[in-house]
Amino acid sequence: MPSDQGDAAPSDQSDAAPSGRKAARRIGRDGGRGLAHELVERLRARILAGEIRPGDKLPTESSLIKEFGVSRTVVREAVSRLQAAGLVETFQGRGSFVLALPPPTAFSVEAAQVRTHRDVLDMIDFRIGVETEAAGLAAERRTDLQLKAIERALIDLGRSGEQPGHAVEADFAFHMKVALASGNRFYSDLLASLGPMMIMLPRTRLEHVYTVSDATHLTRVTLEHENVYRAVADRDAAAARAAMRLHLSNSRARLQAP
User: Fold this and answer.
1) What's the farthest any 2 CA atoms get from each other in the chain?
2) Buried b / exposed e across 25-61, counting CB within 10 Å, b at 16+?
3) Percent of the chain scored above 90 by pLDDT?
4) What percent of the chain clears pLDDT 70, i.e. is strictly above it?
């Protein structure tokens, strides 16, 4: 493959002292990463900024050579790298065209990524920050139907002592219903990406006295959820935030290493 530093375009007298906007576009040799790399970054920035849109044709080789002061070899290598990155497609005799940008990767946390006790505590810290505000927004924005859905999830959670196998799903459903009631899809999307794993993994690290089969523990946890529900029902945003923070902080405290 030709070297990035190989053959910069020969400059004539008119290029000897470029100024203004033209000078700013020139690619210097002191970047340390190679001319082709620098050109790729310049073109990539234009594509991501929407200056060159999907379906648009890239500037011609000759115009890129003139604009950036590089050789034809550097331009071709840069275009080849943009092709490899999935940003452009080249057609023989027609030129290179910008492709539609791929959708952003959705946020996700796989169970395999949460390996240690510290990871579980960090995940709860993360949830405290996210779900506390979601609960406050739910109190301000919830509809009657959304409140009913939260109430049904709370009832199912209270019955989980009779069906321990459903406890994780019931607990997760309650938190999802609160997030949905926030009226902000990013909260519910985020919790959906975490999934029931956000409830299940902490429970696997609880001492035996903190299980759904323990009546005292179940009563305590159900009451914490009830406090969130009542605050949302009363449209008391401050109380909803406080109740969710207390519930998740208590969950964290129950997981603290002895």
Assistant:
1) 88
2) eebeeeeeebbbbbbbeebbebbeeeebeeeeebbee
3) 44
4) 74
Contact in structure between 157 and 212 (CB atoms under 8 Å): no
Determine the Cα angle at 80 with ends 76 and 85, to 5°. 150
155: number of Cβ within 10 Å: 12
Taking all residues of the chain, what is their mean pLDDT, rounded to a whole number?
81
Structure tokens at 50: 């929407």
The pLDDT, as a whole number, for residue 149 is 94
Q: How far apart are CA 89 and CA 79, in angstroms?
A: 9
For the stretch 13-61, pLDDT in tens is 333 334 444 444 677 654 446 888 889 999 989 988 889 999 999 999 9
Say if residue 136's pLDDT is above 60. yes
Q: Concatenated DSSP letters for 7-76?
A: -PPP--GGGSS--HHHHHHPPPGGGSS-HHHHHHHHHHHHHHTTSS-TTPBPPPHHHHHHHHT--HHHHH
| Residue 156: HSE in the Cβ half-sphere, 13 Å Cα cutoff | 18
Can you give the pLDDT at residue 4?
Answer: 47
The pTM assigned to this predicted structure is 0.58
